């Protein structure tokens, strides 16, 4: 990317009113665009919201803001794929990966117990690995990680090299996981989609990379989850500011 100005472009869409009026979350998205590409960027987000299998939005907000900070470049997390036959097996692999990443077993169990009650959020929840409590105080909103992107051409090269289907969804998830895992307070992330037609998810951490798990819920289930397991958090406010405001650009280079 050149040094001209960049814009953070964000979208959120809901059905039966705005999110803050109790509407159902349909879709969210964020990207970084040059001024010249803004029309295209807005269209990408519009298309995402209008074609989502969670429903037809009757509220949508697309917002843009000039980024006034330098953009940090990060390499994508290494990727691994775990093929599983059932949700039970998927959850068991996810739990083992979380444990290897450093999340205590009792905390993992407590997080899984609470997943159902936290599944309608439009953002992520922060789970403290010491107290096994949710600590973000954002209720139904959760934390929305923002100001991040990966150029389509560089992502496409990465996908060809790794023999992975070029999917916007995988790109967005890997960008988010790369940004979140980069912060020293993040121990691991657990995510699966709230899209009823998408059953794969992942566990990610700086130590383990991005582990896709092919089945983490049943087809048709609209409940998703995104949990960041956090340790050593001296400044919760600074952590949330990093997630929401620090601009990140993912860039991959083929290993020599
Ligand atoms: C989402 O749809 O919002 C999350 C998708 C997570 C899994 C992406 C992947 O298949 O790697
Ligand atoms: Mg989604």
TrEMBL record:
Cofactor(s) needed for function: Mg(2+)
GO molecular function: 6-carboxyhexanoate-CoA ligase activity; ATP binding; magnesium ion binding
Catalytic activity: heptanedioate + ATP + CoA = 6-carboxyhexanoyl-CoA + AMP + diphosphate
Pfam families membership: BioW
Broadest EC class assigned to this enzyme: ligase
Pathway annotation: Metabolic intermediate metabolism; pimeloyl-CoA biosynthesis; pimeloyl-CoA from pimelate: step 1/1
Biological process terms in GO annotation: biotin biosynthetic process
Keywords noted in UniProt: ATP-binding, Biotin biosynthesis, Ligase, Magnesium, Nucleotide-binding
UniProt-listed Enzyme Commission number(s): 6.2.1.14
Protein family membership: Belongs to the BioW family.
Function: Catalyzes the transformation of pimelate into pimeloyl-CoA with concomitant hydrolysis of ATP to AMP.
Subunit structure: Homodimer.
Listed name of the protein: 6-carboxyhexanoate--CoA ligase
UniProt lineage: Bacteria, Bacillati, Bacillota, Bacilli, Bacillales
Gene designation per UniProt: bioW
């Amino acid at each position: 990317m050149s040094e001209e100005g960049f814009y953070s472009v964000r979208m959120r869409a809901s059905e039966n009113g705005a999110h803050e009026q109790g509407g159902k979350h349909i879709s969210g998205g964020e990207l970084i665009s040059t001024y010249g590409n803004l029309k295209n960027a807005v269209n990408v987000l519009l298309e995402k919201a209008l074609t989502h299998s969670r429903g037809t939005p009757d509220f949508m907000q697309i917002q843009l803001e000039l980024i006034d900070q330098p953009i940090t470049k990060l390499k994508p997390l290494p990727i691994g794929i775990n093929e599983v036959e059932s949700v039970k097996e998927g959850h068991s692999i996810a739990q083992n990966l979380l444990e290897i990443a450093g999340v205590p077993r009792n905390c993992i169990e407590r997080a899984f117990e609470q997943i159902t009650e936290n599944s309608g959020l439009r953002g992520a929840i922060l789970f403290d690995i010491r107290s096994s409590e949710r600590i973000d105080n954002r209720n139904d909103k959760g934390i929305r990680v923002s100001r991040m992107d990966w150029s389509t051409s560089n992502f496409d090269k990465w996908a060809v090299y790794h023999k992975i289907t070029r999917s916007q969804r995988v790109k967005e998830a890997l960008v988010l996981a790369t940004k979140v895992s980069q912060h020293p307070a993040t121990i691991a992330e657990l995510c699966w989609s709230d899209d009823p037609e998408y059953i794969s998810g992942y566990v990610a951490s700086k130590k383990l990379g991005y582990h896709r798990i092919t089945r983490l819920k049943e087809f048709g289930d609209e409940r998703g989850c995104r949990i960041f397991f956090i340790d050593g958090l001296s400044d919760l406010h600074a952590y949330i500011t990093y997630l929401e405001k620090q601009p990140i650009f993912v860039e991959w280079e083929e290993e020599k």
